[in-house]
Amino acid sequence: MDFKYDVIVVGGGHAGCEAAAAAANLGSKVLLITMDMGRFAQMSCNPAIGGVAKGQIVREIDALGGYTGIITDKSSIQFRMLNRSKGPAMWSPRAQCDRMVFSSEWRIQLEKIPNVFFWQDSVVEFIFQDNIIKGVRTSNNVEFLSEAVVLTTGTFLNGLMYIGSVTSEGGRVSEPASKGLSEQLLSRGFTVGRMKTGTPVRIDERSINFDKLDEQKGDGHDYRFSYLPSPDNGLRKRSCFITYTNPEVHKVLETGLDESPMYNGTIQSIGPRYCPSIETKIVTFSERERHQLFLEPEGETTIEYYLNGFSSSLPLKTQIDALKLVPGLEEVKVFRPGYAIEYDFFEPTQLKHTLETKKISNLFFAGQINGTTGYEEAAAQGLIAGINAHQKINNKTDFTLSRDEAYIGVLIDDLVTKGVDEPYRMFTSRAEFRILLRQDDADSRLSPKSFAIGLASQKRIDHLNEKIDKRNQIIEFLKEFSVKPALINSWLEYMGTAPLKQGVKLIDIISRPQINIYDLLDGIKPFAEFIEKLNMARKDEILESTEIILKYSGYINRERLLADKFKRLENLNIVNKFDYKSIKSLSTEARQKLDSIQPETIGQASRISGVSPSDINVLLVLMGR
Question: What predicted TM-score, i.e. pTM, was given to this entire model?
Answer without folding.
Answer: 0.94
